[in-house]
C-alpha cells in the first residue's frame, strides 16, 4: 500500500527529471536515479521481510466479563536473515470497541539460526463482552526502510476464548449465602466447601471450612477468601432466557438481553450452590438437557439475538424435564399470554418469571401479571435498583479454576 511520501517522491523525481533534461545537469540525473532507486528498494524489501514468518498465541481458555486476561505472543522468523522494523497488531475480540487490541513495534526479528525462539511479547486485555470467541489472525506490517510503501500480512495464530457472563444477583429472590435461604429448596442449608463441582471464590464467612481457604486470593485482596463448591442435593432447575430482536431493547452492552443472561448466570450459580441439577434448552431437536455449571455458563455466553428461544418453543409438557426438575426460571423483558400455558406445571414445581422492567408497567401488563400470579406463577419484577452490589463481586469459575486445583 503506497503512502503519502511515495507520491511526493514520484512527483519530485518527475519534476527534477524534466529540469535536468532542460538544463542538461548531470547531477540532477544522479539525484533522480537515487530517488527512483529508493522507491524500488522500498517496494520489494517489505515483501521480502514478511516472508517466512509464523506466529503462536496463548491465552487462558475461559474468563468472566470484567476479568483481565493476559495474551502471550510468539513471532518466529523461519529464514536465516534477520527481519527489521516490523509492526504487529493483535486484535482482541472480547471488547466492544472495533479498534481494540495491542500494537507492537519489533525493531529486529532474528533469524532461525541465531534465535530459534523468535520474538516474545504479551499484553493484558479487559473482557468486556460475553461470548465464545475465535481470535482473528495477527496482522504483521512492514514499511522499511523509508516508509514509502506499507505491506501487511495476516498470520494465523488460532486460539479460542470463552467469556462467561458476570453473574447478576438480586436481593429479592436469589440465594444469599449469608442467610442460607434458597428459592429452590425450603429449609435445607447448603454445606460449604464440601462437594464436587467448583463454583468460584467468594469472601470467607462464618461456618466455612478452613481447608477451603484460597490463600492466593487472600493475599491479593487482603481478606480471607474461600473456594465454593456445590453440594449434593435433589431436584433440578431449568433456566430459560427468552431471546429475539423484537423482544429485547437497547444495543450492545445496554441491551436487555445482557441483563437477562447475567440474571440467568446468577440463578445458575445459586442453584449449583444448593446442589441442584441444571437444565438448559437444546438448540437442535428441541427439548432440554442436563448440564454442569460450567456448561450452563458456556451456553449462556453463546446466546445471541439472532436465535429465538421462547416459552412456546421450549416449555412443552412432553419435552419438559420430568420429576427430577423442581423449578423453572424464565427471564424475559416482556410478559406474554403464552405464559398462561405454564399453569399446569405449577402443580408439580416452582415457576418463577423474572421480568426485566424498563419504566412503569402498562395497565395491560399489570392485568396479565395478576392473571399469571393467580395461575400459580411467581412474577418477580427486576430493575437495576434491585441488584445486590455486594454479591456482584462474585468471581466466576473461570478466573480461578487454574489456580484452585
Structure overview:
The protein has helices spanning 4-23, 26-49, 215-221, 256-273, 293-302, 311-314, 363-374; strands at residues 53-58, 62-64, 68-77, 83-91, 101-109, 119-126, 131-134, 138-142, 151-155, 160-164, 198-203, 225-229, 236-241, 277-281, 288-291, 327-332, 350-356, 378-382. With 405 residues, the protein is of the alpha/beta class. The chain has three domains: 4-48; 53-164, Immunoglobulins (Immunoglobulin-like), CATH 2.60.40; 233-396, Rossmann fold. Strands 15-14-13-16-17-18 form a six-stranded mixed β-sheet. Strands 5-4-8-9 form a four-stranded antiparallel β-sheet. Strands 1-3-6 form a three-stranded antiparallel β-sheet, with no helix packed on it. Helix 4 runs antiparallel to helix 5 (293-302). The chain is elongated and about 100 Å long. Residues 171-195 and 388-405 have low confidence and may be disordered.
Which key features would you list for this structure?
405 residues; Immunoglobulin-like; Rossmann fold; 3 domains; six-stranded mixed beta sheet; four-stranded antiparallel beta sheet; 7 helices
Would you spell out the secondary-structure blueprint of this structure?
Layout: H1 4-23, H2 26-49, E1 53-58, E2 62-64, E3 68-77, E4 83-91, E5 101-109, E6 119-126, E7 131-134, E8 138-142, E9 151-155, E10 160-164, E11 198-203, H3 215-221, E12 225-229, E13 236-241, H4 256-273, E14 277-281, E15 288-291, H5 293-302, H6 311-314, E16 327-332, E17 350-356, H7 363-374, E18 378-382
Parallel strand pairs: 2-10, 13-14, 13-16, 16-17, 17-18
Antiparallel strand pairs: 1-3, 3-6, 4-5, 4-8, 7-10, 8-9, 11-12, 14-15
Amino acid at each position: 500500500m503506497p503512502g503519502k511520501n511515495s507520491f511526493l517522491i514520484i512527483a519530485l523525481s518527475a519534476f527534477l527529471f524534466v529540469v535536468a533534461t532542460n538544463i542538461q545537469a548531470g547531477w540532477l540525473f544522479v539525484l533522480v536515479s537515487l530517488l527512483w532507486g529508493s522507491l524500488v528498494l522500498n517496494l520489494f524489501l517489505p515483501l521480502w521481510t514478511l516472508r517466512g514468518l509464523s506466529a503462536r498465541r496463548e491465552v487462558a481458555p475461559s474468563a468472566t466479563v470484567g476479568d483481565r486476561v493476559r495474551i502471550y505472543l510468539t513471532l518466529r522468523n523461519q529464514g536465516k536473515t534477520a527481519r527489521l522494523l516490523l509492526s504487529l497488531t493483535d486484535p482482541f475480540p472480547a471488547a466492544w470497541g472495533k479498534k481494540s487490541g495491542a500494537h507492537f513495534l519489533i525493531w529486529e526479528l532474528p533469524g532461525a539460526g541465531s534465535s530459534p525462539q523468535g520474538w516474545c511479547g504479551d499484553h493484558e486485555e479487559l473482557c468486556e463482552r460475553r461470548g465464545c470467541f475465535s481470535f482473528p489472525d495477527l496482522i504483521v506490517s512492514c514499511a522499511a526502510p523509508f516508509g514509502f510503501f506499507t505491506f501487511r500480512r495476516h498470520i494465523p495464530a488460532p486460539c479460542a476464548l470463552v467469556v462467561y457472563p458476570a453473574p447478576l444477583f438480586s436481593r429479592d429472590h436469589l440465594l444469599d449465602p449469608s442467610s442460607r435461604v434458597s428459592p429452590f429448596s425450603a429449609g435445607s442449608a447448603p454445606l460449604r466447601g464440601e462437594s464436587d463441582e467448583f463454583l468460584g471464590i467468594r469472601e470467607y464467612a462464618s461456618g466455612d471450612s478452613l481447608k477451603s481457604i484460597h490463600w492466593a486470593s487472600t493475599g491479593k485482596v487482603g481478606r480471607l477468601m474461600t473456594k465454593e463448591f456445590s453440594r449434593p442435593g435433589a431436584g433440578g432447575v431449568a433456566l430459560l432466557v427468552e431471546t429475539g430482536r423484537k423482544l429485547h431493547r437497547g444495543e450492545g452492552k445496554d441491551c436487555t438481553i445482557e441483563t437477562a443472561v447475567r440474571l440467568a448466570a446468577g440463578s445458575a450459580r445459586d442453584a449449583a450452590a444448593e446442589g441442584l441439577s441444571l437444565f438448559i434448552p437444546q438448540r437442535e431437536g428441541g427439548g432440554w438437557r442436563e448440564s454442569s455449571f460450567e456448561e450452563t455458563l458456556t451456553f449462556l455466553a453463546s446466546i445471541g439475538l439472532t436465535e429465538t428461544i421462547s416459552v412456546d418453543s421450549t416449555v412443552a409438557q412432553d419435552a419438559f424435564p420430568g420429576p427430577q426438575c423442581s423449578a423453572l426460571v424464565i427471564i424475559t423483558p416482556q410478559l406474554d399470554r403464552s405464559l398462561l400455558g405454564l399453569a399446569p406445571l405449577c402443580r408439580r414445581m416452582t415457576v418463577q418469571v423474572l421480568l426485566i422492567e424498563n419504566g412503569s408497567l402498562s395497565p395491560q401488563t399489570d392485568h396479565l401479571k395478576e392473571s399469571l400470579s393467580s395461575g400459580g406463577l411467581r412474577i418477580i419484577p427486576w430493575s437495576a435498583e434491585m441488584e445486590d452490589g455486594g454479591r456482584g463481586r462474585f468471581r466466576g469459575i473461570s478466573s480461578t479454576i487454574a489456580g484452585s486445583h
